[in-house]
């Protein structure tokens, strides 16, 4: 049976630290990439990011358990949230030797979260595409605040502030040895993050990506060349919200519980913004770098906190808030474009354009044209 | 004894009027929605709480101190963050995210301060505290029910007199309307903006110190009111301080009254949707009336709709007559 080794360095368990770091990194990467798609490329300042992540988490956490209870025939006494501490152990026991049900439950939760995120994104997009940046910012911030109040107050969803437990969908793997579950989850999350990264890169390097930037930079000009800015903005918000919801669902399955307190404005709106600004808006590689730097900083501070908290009379979390707020303002003042700046889309050289024109006349060279445009795209 | 929902409405509406007035002052000058504004309210809450619990000073007496602290914090934020960033040519979104950062930093500062209060004075509930008992009652009603609306009236009147009757106030209006032209005329626009932020922070903190006489406060007590404060300012049009006062009154009153009606009719489960009311008002205002209540030309609206309403009624009357004739 595989057991994760323990390597100590300066009294810190390096393996444990790395696993936690990479898990959090993957989650932050996914959510910040979607924010980058919205705010960086399309110019929709989403100040309510936490709402979409939390919605996905709540939907997945609540529905997957109820679905499993239904399939396995666990008696919920008609009150799932009320008997959660009796129901979840029964589900977990059944899931631990039923890999297919576990995997389909995971997929069910994640897809449901994507659907809920998309619906919420669609709802928000109605005012979002009609409002100016400042009004939109206010509206999204207020909507997210309201959403959190609903989550903490309305008990049927996730049991209010108490929260509910979520089935363990990784239990069948190596019999739930401590550590192995984390590695498996990290792999799942890593693949997911990689896919999202590749998808975002694909989108922004395509003609659509250039359209997004055109809408952001000059709405009127993009409209005049026949781009439907309203429809495109709506699509971007829906896709970004769906992916954010999926990230929330995955974290819920990992944590094994979901509560309204898990999803704070500080972590899932503010820190995501810090990552995008730090890494560089409208640059996916920059955001990936920013997410890593930020997560490393965060985990390092956590480690210091863990080791030094007994000697400090106040809660170190507060210092973290002040530190990252100061960091963000410093970046905005000193290097507003972030670590990696946005690469401009340059016009193709005249020789290339001429060759494309020639080749489009001659159908035999159509293949070559494809090669050229692909090369220019990846360069720009 | 007045019914609870009446006093609730009075206190809520007055305090939100006061808060919205301050927020609109900051928006008028810098054109950035200030997400940290709720924290200025929290400054007032903690000033009132700390001085009451440690020195036995009642919140009415500590309100001027709160006003000063909030005003200083507000000016510090304007000079230390927003002015520096806007001088470097930051975009609107960058300035908005900076104000959110300031809000987060304030939450951190309040957290540290509440830890300090716990350590130094053994106040265990300093992160989330219950309302402070009012120091006087009049005709069987708590003092805040009188003090909050009177304060709002005094502040609105004072701001009105300042803007219309004093030279500095005229300079303020000029700086808001057209900064370049005001500069040409020799007005120090920067000083005017600093003063506007000073007042805004002061009003926020003052309303915060009154707020904890009626409702619980805490580290995020002010930040959680941001929905109502923004809704009130948006309803007022974000361009008029009188509109903001009106917006605050409408938001505060409708939140209490609609919730009261809904609680009576539908049961206690609607209570948590209370904050949905300002949110809905905000969304509807933004979509239907983006320039707010003050943008409506009431006289023209009434005069212009009157003839069409009359002709509609006449047409309706004739069609009913026709129907009646067919029927007979």
What does this protein structure show overall?
The complex is a heterodimer of chains A (380) and B (328). Chain A is an all-alpha fold and 380 residues long. Helix content of chain A is 72%, strand content 2%. Chain A has helices at 14-42, 49-72, 84-95, 99-128, 133-153, 155-158, 180-205, 207-217, 219-224, 229-255, 265-279, 284-308, 316-334, 350-361, 366-379; strands at residues 8-9, 12-13, 164-165, 257-258. Chain A has a two-stranded antiparallel sheet with strand order 1-2. The longest helix of chain A has 30 residues, at 99-128. Chain B has 328 residues and is an all-alpha fold. Chain B starts with a helix and ends with a helix. The chains are: A mainly alpha (380), B mainly alpha (328). The interface between A and B is large, with 45 and 46 residues.
Average residue-wise pLDDT of chain B: 85
**Proportion of residues in extended strands of chain B:** under 5%
Helix content of chain A: over 70%
**Tally of DSSP helical segments of chain B:** 12
Structural class, from helix and strand content of chain B? Answer: mainly alpha
Helicity range of chain B: over 70%
Spatial strand order of the main sheet of chain B: 1-4
Give the number of helices of chain A. 15
Strand-helix topology:
The complex is a heterodimer of chains A (380) and B (328).
Chain A: E1 8-9, E2 12-13, H1 14-42, H2 49-72, H3 84-95, H4 99-128, H5 133-153, H6 155-158, E3 164-165, H7 180-205, H8 207-217, H9 219-224, H10 229-255, E4 257-258, H11 265-279, H12 284-308, H13 316-334, H14 350-361, H15 366-379
Chain B: H1 4-30, H2 37-55, H3 59-87, H4 92-121, E1 128-129, E2 137-138, E3 141-142, H5 144-165, H6 167-177, H7 179-184, H8 189-211, E4 217-218, H9 226-235, H10 241-266, H11 276-288, H12 298-327
Antiparallel strand pairs in B: 1-4, 2-3
Helix pairs in contact in B: 1-5, 1-8, 1-9, 1-10, 2-3, 2-4, 2-8, 3-4, 3-8, 5-6, 6-8, 9-10, 9-11
């Amino acid at each position: 049976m595989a057991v994760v080794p323990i390597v100590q360095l300066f009294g810190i368990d390096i393996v444990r630290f790395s696993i936690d770091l990479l898990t959090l990194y993957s989650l932050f990467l996914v959510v910040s990439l979607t924010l980058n798609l919205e705010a960086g490329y399309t110019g929709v300042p989403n100040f309510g990011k936490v709402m979409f992540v939390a919605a996905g988490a709540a939907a997945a956490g609540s529905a997957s358990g109820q679905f499993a209870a239904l399939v396995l025939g666990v008696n919920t006494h008609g009150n799932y949230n009320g008997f959660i501490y009796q129901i979840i152990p029964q589900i977990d026991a059944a899931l631990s030797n039923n890999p297919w049900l576990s995997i389909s439950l995971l997929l069910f939760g994640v897809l449901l979260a994507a659907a809920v995120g998309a619906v919420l994104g669609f709802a928000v997009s109605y005012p979002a595409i009609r409002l100016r940046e400042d009004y939109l910012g206010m509206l999204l911030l207020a909507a997210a605040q309201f959403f959190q109040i609903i989550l903490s107050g309305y008990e049927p969803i996730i049991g209010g502030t108490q929260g509910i437990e979520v089935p363990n969908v990784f239990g069948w793997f190596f019999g739930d040895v401590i550590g192995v579950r984390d590695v498996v989850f990290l792999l799942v999350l890593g693949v997911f993050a990689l896919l999202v990264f590749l998808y975002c890169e694909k989108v922004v390097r395509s003609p659509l990506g250039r359209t997004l930037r055109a809408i952001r930079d000059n709405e009127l000009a993009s409209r005049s060349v026949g781009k439907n800015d309203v429809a495109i903005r709506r699509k971007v918000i829906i896709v970004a919200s769906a992916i954010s919801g999926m990230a929330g669902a995955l974290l819920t399955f990992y944590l094994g519980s979901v509560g309204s307190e898990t999803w704070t404005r500080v972590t899932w709106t503010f820190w995501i913004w810090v990552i995008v600004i730090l890494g560089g808006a409208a640059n996916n590689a920059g955001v990936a770098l920013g997410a890593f730097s930020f997560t490393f900083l965060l985990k390092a501070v956590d480690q210091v906190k863990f080791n030094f908290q007994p000697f400090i009379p106040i809660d170190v979390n507060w210092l973290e808030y002040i530190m990252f707020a100061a960091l963000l303002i410093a970046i905005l003042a000193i290097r507003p474009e972030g670590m990696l700046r946005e690469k401009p889309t340059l016009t193709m050289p005249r020789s290339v354009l001429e060759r494309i024109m020639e080749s489009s006349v001659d159908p035999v060279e159509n293949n070559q044209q494809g090669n050229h445009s692909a090369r220019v795209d990846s360069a720009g | 004894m007045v019914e609870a929902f009446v006093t609730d409405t009075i206190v809520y509406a007055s305090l939100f009027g006061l808060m919205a007035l301050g927020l609109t002052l900051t928006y008028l000058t810098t054109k950035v929605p200030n997400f940290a504004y709720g924290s200025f309210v929290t400054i007032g809450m903690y000033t009132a709480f700390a001085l009451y619990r440690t020195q036995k000073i009642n919140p009415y007496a500590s309100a001027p101190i709160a006003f000063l602290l909030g005003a200083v914090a507000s000016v510090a934020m304007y000079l230390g963050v927003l002015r520096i960033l806007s001088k470097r040519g930051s975009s609107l979104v960058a300035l908005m995210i900076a104000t959110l950062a300031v809000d987060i930093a304030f939450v951190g500062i309040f957290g540290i301060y509440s830890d300090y209060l716990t350590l130094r004075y053994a106040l265990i509930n300093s992160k989330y505290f219950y309302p402070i008992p009012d120091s006087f009652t009049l005709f069987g009603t708590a003092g805040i029910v009188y003090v909050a609306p009177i304060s709002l009236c005094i502040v609105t009147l004072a701001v009105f007199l300042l803007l219309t009757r004093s030279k500095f106030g005229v300079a303020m209006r000029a700086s808001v309307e057209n900064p370049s032209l005001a500069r040409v005329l020799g007005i120090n626009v920067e000083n005017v903006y600093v003063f506007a932020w000073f007042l805004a922070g002061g009003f926020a903190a003052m309303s915060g110190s009154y707020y904890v006489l009626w409702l619980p406060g805490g580290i995020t007590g002010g930040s959680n009111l941001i929905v109502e404060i923004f809704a009130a300012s948006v309803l007022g049009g974000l361009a008029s301080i009188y509109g903001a006062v009106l917006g605050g009154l409408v938001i505060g009153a409708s939140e209490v009254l609609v919730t009261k009606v809904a609680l009576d009719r539908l049961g206690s489960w609607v209570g948590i949707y209370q904050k949905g009311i300002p949110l809905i008002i905000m969304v509807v205002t933004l979509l239907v009336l983006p320039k707010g209540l003050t943008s409506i030309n009431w006289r023209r609206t009434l005069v212009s709709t009157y003839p069409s309403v009359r002709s509609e009624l006449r047409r309706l009357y004739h069609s009913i007559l026709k129907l009646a004739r067919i029927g007979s």
